Every structure is written in structure tokens, then in C-alpha cells.
Amino acid sequence: MGKSEFDAVIIGAGPGGGATAWGLTRYGFKVLVLEAGPAYSPSEYNLDRTDWEQSAFPDRSKHKERYTFGPFQKLGTRLTEIRSWNHLEGYVNKTEYRTANAYNHMRGVGGSSLIFSGEAQRLHPGAMQMRTRFGVAADWPLSYAELEPYYCLAERIIGVAGPSGDSVRYRSEPYPLPPHQLSYGSTKIAEGFRKLGLTLTQNPVAILSRPYDNRPECNYCANCVRGCPRTDKGSVDVTFIRKAVDSGFCSIRPDCRVTALKAGASDNITEVQYIDDTGAVKSVKGRIVIVSCGAIETPRLLLASKGRYAPDGVGNESGHVGQHFMETIYWFSVGMHRDPLDSFRGIPVDGICWDFNAPDAIPDMIGGCRFSPSVAETNLVGPVNYAKRAVKGWGKEHKKAMRDTFGKALAIVAMGESLPNKKSYIDLDPLKKDDEGIALARIHTFLEEMDIRRIEFMSKKTREVLAASGVENIFEEYSAYDIFNSSHVFGTCRMGSDPRQSAIDRHCRSHRWQNLFIVDASVFPSSGGGESPSLTIEALAIRTSDYINSLAKRGEL
Amino acid sequence: MGAGLLATSGYLFLEVFRPSQLNHRETKTIEALLGTLIPDDETPGALKLGVSEMILSKAATQNKYRHIIKKGSEWLDREAGKLSSTDFTALREEDRDSIVARAIESPTDSLPRNFLELMRADAFEFYYSNPRSWAQLGYNGPPQPNGFMDYYKPRSPRL
User: Fold this and answer.
1) Model ipTM value
2) Would residue A61 count as lying in a domain?
3) Is the CB of B129 less than 8 angstroms away from the CB of A53?
4) Which residues of B touch A381 (CB under 8 A)?
5) The pTM is what?
């Protein structure tokens, strides 16, 4: 291998890449981060404009076409009650087949944390041994106890505000910040849970409840998904990346699309090829290479990097790259509360019910789920969406109804375990390519009976809780049953101890390629029971950086 | 010959998608429709908040948008003629409402349905993104820079 310009080349500046960059710079590693999307400034976000509601996150990435879908499964006729619908147009998906909205992934320095709601949950320890306990998915090759110190570190860097008293997820230290109070709207949902004998507690979030690390506290505008102009949301760009760059050891190159990893004869990645922001073809060498592009783009890059020494794609010696794809199993119900609430205020997902989160908590089912208030995630936080989606009709009646209902919307989201199956995987589209001629990722998604039954459970419980909360009419529901719409995806470069059954080892290192590491949710052997994955990715990333440092100290890199 | 046919068909295609600007009658019909969708009551309606100017401005620059507005305006006047032998602008409020209802209840993907859904969505978008419409709702937006520090309290009394 020729002389390396950098100790580490990291591909992707999201939770995995950003946290690894920070982790390595602590030890003085010289790090380069190549990011396919642009760098954003918080001053770009539009929340102080009168037309803010028409503006999503100001996505400036140049290359939108990134993936295609394989054929979708036919929908059963017995399950009409778990289809997506709204009161204006009936079924949202009017076909007899499952369809797709989007893979909600953001390219840019900060990755999908730019548009996340700030949720920062740890995995349920019981959800990390799904093969041993239930014969499904795969076991994590490390324990919750091994990950716990790294959870603490990640929570300190991003500034997590959370409650004490979680008896399931052991903590060696308290959250760095006190929890946020529930919004007034969410207190109504908490009442609903309580009436059913369930508990809604404060959700741990990377949103500052008081000034911290030179960032201000949140002012509860509810619009994290449009980009946080105050920087109180702990997205990766204002936390891990900022600290890595401040160390003087890290360079970020935005708008650089990696096209291939070059594998050499000595089981090492010798070169990373990319197109820079001017369109020039470039390459760079790193003593180590870390891929952190997410569970769809990471397998795409590895599979597309075929060569003499990696005929089936880099890291794909056992055929596991792209397999075991797990998606977001979700259910949303949205309705109107009987009382005025001004429910457009607060943080987007401020509460969480863990009662069914354990993998055996739902009767006669494998895999858990969680429930949260989520009116902001359904985008009912301003007048325009109320007028277009929530209130029917037109004329004077519509204006009167707007005055009567604005601020009364309440919503609950449920998210559950996604179990891998043979029909859910990522491969390369044989026909569609990007601007550089690289095959697009093709998403094959299939729900098995257990996933569908979990959605049924989530839908019933969500409706019960909303009714108990004082919601009198539900007017929209969205379901993974008939529409693929995933922000949390997992499993396509599974970690494991057996090289025949996994792509990487327990330290996120390729079983074969000695200087190749993968750090994103593609390494998850199981998805968890609806927890958001970013904190776990960050904890894994810091742990991986410690391991890399230990290898370097022993002269084994 | 073949080239001539191609050129001719290309010319016709471009004509369809470069429709003429809205004439006076079409403009008045759209204004009447917007006044029907968001009328004045104790608060100002669409016309007073400049919604028609925004929609007409959008129509002036977007060919497909202008095309559907011209066809929709034609449909409104045709329905008005069937009802009262007059234009949509000259109808009474309840007759305009009945024509709007007929459009909304038309089959999915029909011209009147598509046209009315487009006008409804845009009218509400332009109207409710104007801060002058927010006071009636008790909305103290936009979300930043002030946020909602009273988020945990019951809603504030309406003005």
C-alpha cells in the first residue's frame, strides 16, 4: 500500500461518520471526511419567514436520484383497517399493491440528523439477543453493558435531556441535562395512556433544556425537522463534526461523491475514488477507511466496488452485504381534541411509552414497539396544513372551522421492531444509474405476517389511547402496511462473530479487509423495538474509534 | 414531408403548453372563485389579502398552471350558463357554492375536480401564509425567532 495522506478516510458525515471522526481526532488521528451533500449553515433555515410552512429543510444536494424499488407485495383484502387514509381523499394508496413514499435520508454535513426530531434513545438490552431468545434476526455480538459507557459519551457530546428512572436501560451516570416538560397537548395524551394503565414518560432527546456547550436552550418551536436555526438540537454538524474540526485534525470535504473503494491484494482498501465538488475525478489513500453512508448507500458502495480482489463487491465474501434489510415499521393516527390546546408548541416528540418496547411485551408476538405524541412529525404545526388537510370544505364554513379547530390536532406515532426476511434486501439496479454511471441502490421490501400483526396491534392501541385522551375524530392515518416510508433502516452489513453469517466483526471491522470499518445502522443485527437509531450509531462509532486507536497503539494497522 | 409533419405537430404541442395569458373574463372568473373559496366574513377574505394577485402571478409564468386555470374558468362559466344563463361572476353566492361542490364531487382526475383541488390548495396556502390571517386563529407565528416558551401551559386566550 502506498503512503497514505490521511490516517483515516471517512465516507459520510452523518451520525456514524461524524462521531467516528470526533472519536479518532481525540487520539490525534489525521482524518478526512468525504460527504456527498453540501454543508449547511443554521442561518439558512426558514423558520422566521411568513411562508415557513411551505418550506421543508432547504435540501441543496445536487443529486436527488439515489434508489429504486423492486416489485411490491400485494395487499390483503382482510386488513383494510390498517391502510393509510385521510378524510379528504380516502385511501392514500389507491392500488392493490404496497407502494413507496420515500427513504427519508439527507445528504449533507450532519446527515439525517439535520432533519431528525432529536430523539436519543438507547436500545432495549433484550432486543439485542433476538436469535438466542426468539430464533429471529441475529444476536448483537456485543452486550448492552459494553456499549453503555459509549452511550454516556455520545449523550454528553450531543447534549441529551432525559428523565431518570428507566429500570430497563441501566445508566452509569445521569443524563447531562434535565428532561423537558411535556407540552400542554402531550399532557392530554399522557392522560389517555394513564387511563389505559400505561405510562407516557419524557422522551430522551438531543435538544437542550438549558444552555450547554456554547449552544442555547430550545425555545419550543416544534420544527426540528425543518432544521434548527438556534443549534439547540444536537445534530451531528453542530456537535461531533464541529468538535472534530476544532481539534485541527479533521478536514471535511462536502459535495464529494465516493464512487468506489479500490481493494488490493493484501486484504486492504488501497484507495477511495470520488468526484469532487467541481466534478473532477479524485482519489485518496487512508491507512483506514470507514464507510458510514447508511443502510442503503453503504451496501450500494460496497457492491459497486467490484474488482479483481473483490469479485462480489468489497466485504461481500459471505454474501451478506445488502441482505437482512430492516425498515421503519410505523403507524400514525391524527385527530382533533375536543379542547383548544395550541398543540403546535413544544418539542416534536416529547413523550414516549415504553410499555410494549421489550421484544416479548406484545402478547403472542415477537418484537416490541413504542408510542409517542407526534403532532409535529405529521406537520400539523401551522395554519396552511390545517386548512388544506385537517379542515374540509371551503367558504365561510371553512373559515369558521379553522377558527374552531386550529391548535386542536393531536397525533400518536407507533414504531415497532422490523424483522429481517429473505425478500427484504438491497441490491444494485441493473438498469438505472446515477450521473457517474454507478448503479443505483434498489430497495426490495416485504412485510411478513409478524410485521403486519405488529402494525395491527400498534394501530389498535394508538386509537384506544387517542380516544382516552379526548380525541373525538381521527381524520388521517398512515401505515407501513401499504406505504413504505422509512427514515430508520438497518441490517444490510450485519455485524457478527461468524464471518460466514455477517459482513463485519464486533468492532465494526470487515472480516477480511483489515483496514475497512463500517459504522452506521447497516451493522445492526436487529432493529430494536422502535427506538431511533442515531444514538446507538454514535455510541458504536466512538467504540470503534477506541478500537482503532488500540490497534494503532499495538502497531496492527 | 416527415420533417414538416414533425415540425407542425411540435408547433401544436407547444401551443397547448404555452397558452395565452388570462383574458379579462377569465381573470374575473378566478377572482370570483377565490372569493367563494375564502369569502369575507368578520375577517378579511382571499381578495383582501391579495390571494388573487398571487395566483394570477403564478399563472403568468407557469404554462401548465395557466392552462388548467383557463380550462377551469371555462368550465365554471359553462356550468353557470347551464344554471342561470349567465357567467360565474354574476351568480349568487349559493349558486357559486353549488358549482364548486359539483366540481369537488366530480370523478377523481376529471378536469373540474383537479382544477378545484388545485385552486383550493393554493388559495389556502397563500391566504394562511399571510400573517394577517393568523390573528383570527390566535397564532403567534412564525415559529422563530421567538418560539413558544409557554408550550406547557393551556393556550393563551384569543385576541
Assistant:
1) 0.93
2) no
3) yes
4) 143
5) 0.94
